[in-house]
UniProtKB/TrEMBL annotation:
Catalysed reactions, semicolon-separated: [thioredoxin]-disulfide + sulfite + AMP + 2 H(+) = adenosine 5'-phosphosulfate + [thioredoxin]-dithiol
Example GO BP: hydrogen sulfide biosynthetic process
NCBIfam families in UniProt: cysH (TIGR00434), PRK02090.1 (NF002537)
Subcellular location: Cytoplasm
Source species: Salinispora tropica (strain ATCC BAA-916 / DSM 44818 / JCM 13857 / NBRC 105044 / CNB-440)
Amino acids binding [4Fe-4S] cluster: C143, C144, C226, C229
PANTHER family hit by this protein: PHOSPHOADENOSINE PHOSPHOSULFATE REDUCTASE (PTHR46509:SF1)
Family under the similarity heading: Belongs to the PAPS reductase family. CysH subfamily.
Cited Pfam families: PAPS_reduct (PF01507)
HAMAP family: CysH
Name listed for the protein in its UniProt record: Adenosine 5'-phosphosulfate reductase
Gene: cysH
Chief location category: cytoplasm
Associated pathway: Sulfur metabolism; hydrogen sulfide biosynthesis; sulfite from sulfate
Sorted UniProt keywords: Cytoplasm, Iron, Iron-sulfur, Metal-binding, Oxidoreductase
Taxonomic path: Bacteria, Bacillati, Actinomycetota, Actinomycetes, Micromonosporales
């Protein structure tokens, strides 16, 4: 018999090795990341976005990545100034506007980053076959789970920290977004360098650095997601009012 034995939940381990070693190490790593995130969240509150990015890059190196919806490339640009070659995760749901894919392609072509387009396990056609057509109009939470949340979880394997472009002024539900926090669900550090930026700060950065922006913003869209769940907004509406407008839903589940 080989010197390897099966241990529940662990896969193959060497005979005689303590089966609990791997989970114990994972628990310790998780606790260390949590402590680190909580301390950094306090210490970096109020710090410039670049300083928050520098902290993450110095602390995590290539175990840090950026996520982007490609509504604009502000966060990607900011991080690329500190960490050229950084991985950028884009969740390619198969239901994006062509304009969004154009931003993704432009970022990939013109910026010093490594764009990783992550697709869901099921194509849109396979999802229609398994769950019925237009799941997004019947059960958007399930659709987001299948096309975004599961993809993100798969994409983040191998990283200890991820950056997002969440901002406090995006919506009331994001008003308390910390600059660094612990993502309990995924056991990773979540870095939100531009959490305190206003829309005016974003626009200033875009024009200062000539950053790629989704063309839909020039056509009365104020937040851009998948085409079936995004509509134009009217004057006076919340910036995210055009997302899942037919439902009591404000977030896709990536940040919950
Ligand atoms: S935003 Fe809409 S289409 Fe995109 S994954 Fe969520 S429910 Fe599906």
């Amino acid at each position: 018999m080989s010197g390897l034995v099966w241990a529940a939940g662990l896969g193959l381990v060497g005979a005689g090795e303590p089966a609990a070693a791997e989970p114990a190490a994972a628990d310790a790593n998780r606790q260390e990341l949590r402590t680190l995130a909580e301390e950094a969240g306090r210490e970096l509150e109020g710090a410039p976005a670049l300083e928050v990015v520098r902290w993450a890059v110095e602390r995590f190196g290539d175990r840090f990545c950026v996520t982007s919806s490609m509504a604009d490339a502000v966060l990607v640009h900011l991080v690329s100034r500190v960490a050229p070659g950084v991985d950028v995760v884009f969740l390619d749901t198969g239901l994006h506007f062509p304009e969004t894919l154009r931003v993704r392609d432009q970022v990939s072509r013109t910026m010093p980053v490594n764009v990783r387009s992550i697709r869901p396990r099921l194509t849109v056609g396979q999802q229609d076959g398994e769950y019925g057509p237009r799941l997004f109009h019947r059960s958007p939470d399930d659709c987001c789970q299948l096309r975004k949340v599961e993809s993100l979880e798969r994409a983040l394997v191998g990283y200890d920290a991820w950056a997002t472009g969440l901002r406090r002024d995006d919506s009331p539900s994001r008003a308390n977004t910390p600059v660094v926090t612990f993502d309990t669900r995924r056991g990773k550090v979540k870095v939100n360098p531009i959490a305190a930026w206003t829309q005016a700060d974003v626009e200033t950065y875009i024009s200062q650095w000539d950053v790629p922006v989704n063309e839909l913003f020039g056509r009365a869209y104020s937040s851009v997601g998948c085409w079936p769940c995004t509509r134009r907004t009217r004057a006076g509406e919340d910036a995210r009012a055009g997302r899942w407008a037919m439902f009591e839903k404000a977030e896709c589940g990536l940040h919950g």
